[in-house]
Amino acid sequence: MATDGSVLADASCATSGDKPSEITTMADYSGCSYAWQPNGFGDWSSSCSTKAMRDVKTICQRQDGVTAEDASCDAATRPAYTEEAQILAGCTYEAAYSTTYSTCAAERQSAPIISCTRSDGTKVDLDKCAEQSVVRACEMPATWSYGLWGTWSSMCSDSAKRTRSATCMVDGKVAPDYRCTAAKEPVEETGCASIVPNGTFENGNVNGWTGSDGIYGGAAGYGADGSRYVMGVAPGQTARLTVTGMEANKAYTLTLMCKGRSNSPATARISTNTITQNITCGGSTYASVTANFSGNGTTDTITLYRSSATIDYDNISIQPR
Ligand SMILES: [Ca+2]
């Protein structure tokens, strides 16, 4: 259009801007309907409940699917509903224990679980609490265990010494000494040592002796005076030991303990280079036998002659008088 109002061809407007559209649009939702729609969930009311509740959320939605302001929907018709379910993911478990502990073993004892309670108050199977064991330290009986006496520091001295070990034992294992509250028996002694080097047989052998029936015993109390080992001499045998270190014409005392193996008294005979003496050995208990003699020199021998029954000999010693 020209400035005077006359109509011109469209091309006359080419330099004065784009031709305005002849079709226009505008939003008009006045005819739309709105409705409440489900839209997700709220948090569960509990993480540990057989009846946990949660809200089902709603939004106001225009009929073309676009979310609208809540005010666009009728508040009076907004659904308010919840759902219920068992939710146990957040439960904790607490055990109750017996006041009676198990027997002490390996220095430990435990209290048995007698009930298991879930954090919502429900009693549940004990295995839910199985990891909550209650273990406490406990003390098993401790006893001294003594080693065998060592060899005498001198084989012919009134002040010879010998020692043995003492170990505190608990449940078959070595324990600190303080665990053993009983008084420790002597582990060192001074005395007049026997000239017989293997007269108690507590090393578990008959070394030095010839002709014997061998070593017997092994358990505490088998031998004389509660010892463990003895030397056996069967009928027809003659056990003999060569003793060195004795002085010629010096007075000595030979002592030994003996018992019939079958628990019946038995007769036998002992001799040294200078004496021969018949002896009677005990039946159910050991008899102590003593014989005085004079040394013959460095080749003295002790001979235990054959008897009518097998005899156990123990604690054989020669001491200066
Ligand atoms: Ca013995």
Describe this structure in words.
0% of the residues lie in helices and 41% in strands. With 321 residues, the chain is mainly beta. The chain folds into 4 domains: 34-87, no CATH class; 93-137, no CATH class; 142-191, no CATH class; 209-320, Jelly Rolls (Sandwich). A 5-stranded antiparallel sheet has the order 15-18-23-20-21, with no helix packed on it. Strand 12 and strand 13 form a beta hairpin. The model has no long low-confidence stretch (mean pLDDT 87). Bound molecules: calcium ion. Calcium ion binds next to strand 17.
CATH topology of the largest domain, anyone? Jelly Rolls
Could you tell me the mean pLDDT?
A: 87
Order of helices and strands: EEEEEEEEEEEEEEEEEEEEEEEE
Number of helices: 0
Strand content: 35-45%
The CATH architecture designation of the largest domain is Sandwich
Gross morphology = rod-shaped
CATH homologous superfamily identity of the largest domain: Galactose-binding domain-like
Radius of gyration, CA atoms, in whole angstroms: 53 Å
The CATH class name of the largest domain reads: Mainly Beta
**Percent helix:** under 10%
Low-confidence stretches: none
Distance between the termini: 161 Å
Tally the beta strands. 24
Structural class assignment: mainly beta
Q: How many domain modules? A: 4
Give a short account of the largest sheet: 5 strands, antiparallel
